């Protein structure tokens, strides 16, 4: 009896929190058929938002992949003072609210802040522009690649790399030929997670972008702005598109998750 | 000399692992670094390979000062206890790795790798992945991989340590034969004295980060410099204040000149040999034991409770315990 009770509870919980809202969004999106959906997504503003999202998420993923591999190697293959501190710091973005991240970035890179002012005098605008949005997205999705790689690197050990060295391989050769193939699935998993997080980021980007329509508006910001302006078809269409991308990445992570 | 290690000292943090170690390895020899775990033998091997840097001291390989050289430039072959097989590469590609790094022509690589795989009896498994091999096969693959680059010295770190007893014995004999064929200067680390005695030409006994003794297997077994080496190299027992090998003791039912009286506590028959456990008079209950042939035990009719006399045989190596 208790078993059925628990099952019912789980189903009802999921129904009201997840299934119902998602179904309603999809239903509302396609209520008028495919044409309005396509039309809403191909409006200049929507297309621009797509483009901004791809650029920002793309740079963030590239940055976090390079950074993630570097930091993971540092954490697993070297010992140095402050290693535990670095390890703890990597998880900070998970704990801090994205809005706080955005405000903090404005304090550093804003026009009237020392660093931001200096960059601005060189003609490089960070806040209310793409660089700031990339930095914010990099920050919030920072731990994902590192956390996917560290356990795999630890399990892999460094003996294969040492063997490669004694066989004449340089550090780079041993990384490319031995380490990278050993972590490729975990890396793929981390990169996909990072991409999903970057595409869906809202809070930090909302703060640093200034939400300038047709300039610094990402897809998530577009959804919110359309909804506030009572343009529900566009809001729902973009939301559905985001949800579909999320489902796709979820499937990808299932495929990439290391089997053994 | 193929390898000259001079005055090497190495610590991990505040723990000294090697203290002022000097070792010479002759060209073409098969040398064992023997000692208890934690004695520094693996660290010494890794210092020779360049995988660890000594704090003080130098390493010369084939007359060249290699102390500051990275492992990649030392021309050493290294075999790890847990094989360090490249898991994503086939057996063929594993063995070919060093040659591919050196950008040798494809035909030459193919020929050399197949030759080596034949040498280690893996030619039929060239397309398998390491996960499809047994432990012994993986270790033979690792050996072929190390030999492929024609190293000046071959270094093996407890090469048979992860294998079960049967495979271990086979591979031991096989390594000895391989060395007779290939003649590459080889140093291997082991904590198994039987393995060292069976396989090596020269044994270096290392303990507490120091070289205790260097010599041929017969020398270190028959003429150990101290009780530690004597104990480590083979069975010992204590009679009349001396450390003696249990097979170097005469046992007699009648009194012997300079003999020690004792009472038999147990007689254990282990196949062809018999282990006689005795209580020696005046030795405060510390038991001793004597190894005799089955034939002798039957002739003397040894049984628990008998009183016998023990005496080291004339040529026996004895170490006085009181002197230590």
Q: State the assembly state of the protein chains.
A: heterodimer
Average pLDDT confidence of chain A is: 91
Q: Which structural category fits the helices and strands of chain B?
A: alpha+beta
Morphology call of chain A: globular
Largest sheet report of chain B: 6 strands, mixed
Low-confidence stretches of chain B: none
Give the largest interface.
Answer: A-B, 16 and 27 residues
The name of the CATH superfamily of chain A reads: MetI-like
- The helix tally of chain A amounts to 14
The portion of residues forming beta strands of chain B comes to 25-35%
Task: Report the major sheet of chain A.
Answer: none
The helix tally of chain B amounts to: 9
Strand segment count of chain B? 18
Provide the CATH topology of chain A: MetI-like fold
How many beta-strand segments of chain A?
0
Terminus-to-terminus distance of chain A = 36 Å
Please give the CATH architecture of chain A.
Answer: Orthogonal Bundle
Provide the succession of SSEs of chain A. HHHHHHHHHHHHHH
Distance between the termini of chain B: 34 Å
GO molecular function (chain B): ABC-type quaternary ammonium compound transporting activity; ABC-type sulfate transporter activity; ATP binding; ATP hydrolysis activity
EC number (chain B): 7.6.2.9
Keywords (chain B): ATP-binding, Cell membrane, Membrane, Nucleotide-binding, Sulfate transport, Translocase, Transport
Organism (chain B): Microbispora oryzae
């Amino acid at each position: 009896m208790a078993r059925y009770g628990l099952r019912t509870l789980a189903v009802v919980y999921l129904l009201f929190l997840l299934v119902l809202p998602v179904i309603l969004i999809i239903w509302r999106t396609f209520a008028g058929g495919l044409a309005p959906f396509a039309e809403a997504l191909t409006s200049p503003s929507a297309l621009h938002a797509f483009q901004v999202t791809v650029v920002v998420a793309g740079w963030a993923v590239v940055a976090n992949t390079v950074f993630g591999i570097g930091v993971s190697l540092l954490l697993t293959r070297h010992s140095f003072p402050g290693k535990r501190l670095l390890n703890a710091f990597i998880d900070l973005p998970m704990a801090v609210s994205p809005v706080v991240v955005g405000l903090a970035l404005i304090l550093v890179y804003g026009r009237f802040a020392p660093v931001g002012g200096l960059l601005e005098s060189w003609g490089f605008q960070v806040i209310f522009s793409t660089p700031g949005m990339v930095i914010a997205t990099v920050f919030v999705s920072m731990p994902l690649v590192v956390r996917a790689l560290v356990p795999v690197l630890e399990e892999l050990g460094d003996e294969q790399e040492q063997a490669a060295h004694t066989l004449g391989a340089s550090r780079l050769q041993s990384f490319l030929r031995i380490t990278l193939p050993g972590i490729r699935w975990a890396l793929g998993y981390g990169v996909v997670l990072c991409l999903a997080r970057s595409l869906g980021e809202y809070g930090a980007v909302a703060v640093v972008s200034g939400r300038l329509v047709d300039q610094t508006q990402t897809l998530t910001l577009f959804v919110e702005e359309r909804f506030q302006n009572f343009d529900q078809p566009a809001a729902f269409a973009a939301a559905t598109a985001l949800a579909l991308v999320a489902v796709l990445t979820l499937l990808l992570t299932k495929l990439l998750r290391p089997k053994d | 000399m193929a390898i000259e290690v001079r005055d090497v000292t190495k610590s991990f943090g505040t723990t000294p692992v090697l203290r002022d170690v000097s070792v010479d390895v002759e060209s073409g020899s098969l040398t064992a670094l023997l000692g208890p775990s934690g004695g520094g033998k693996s660290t010494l091997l890794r210092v020779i390979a360049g995988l660890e840097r000594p704090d003080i001291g130098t390493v010369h390989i084939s007359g060249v000062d290699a102390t500051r050289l990275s492992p990649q430039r030392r021309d050493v072959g290294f075999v790890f206890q847990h094989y360090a097989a490249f898991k994503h590469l086939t057996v063929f590609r594993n063995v070919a790795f060093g040659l591919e790094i050196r950008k040798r022509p494809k035909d030459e690589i193919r020929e050399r790798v197949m030759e080596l795989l034949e040498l280690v009896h893996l030619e039929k498994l060239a397309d398998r992945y390491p996960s499809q091999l047994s432990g012994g096969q993986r270790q033979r693959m690792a050996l072929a991989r190390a030999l492929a680059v024609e190293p000046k010295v071959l270094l093996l770190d407890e090469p048979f340590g992860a294998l079960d007893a049967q495979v271990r014995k086979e591979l031991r004999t096989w390594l000895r034969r391989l060395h007779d064929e290939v003649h590459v200067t080889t140093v291997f680390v082991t904590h198994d004295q039987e393995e060292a005695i069976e396989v090596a030409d020269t044994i270096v006994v290392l303990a507490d980060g120091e070289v205790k003794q260097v010599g041929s297997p017969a020398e270190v077994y028959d003429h150990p410099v101290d009780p530690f080496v004597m104990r480590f190299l083979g069975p010992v027992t204590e009679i009349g204040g001396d450390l003696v090998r249990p097979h170097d003791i005469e046992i007699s039912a009648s009194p012997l000149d300079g003999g020690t009286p004792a009472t038999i506590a147990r007689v254990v028959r282990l196949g062809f040999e018999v282990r006689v456990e005795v209580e020696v008079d005046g030795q405060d209950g510390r038991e001793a034991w004597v190894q005799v042939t089955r034939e002798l035990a039957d002739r003397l009719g040894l049984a628990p409770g008998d009183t016998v006399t023990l005496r080291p045989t004339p040529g026996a190596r004895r170490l006085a315990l009181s002197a230590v």
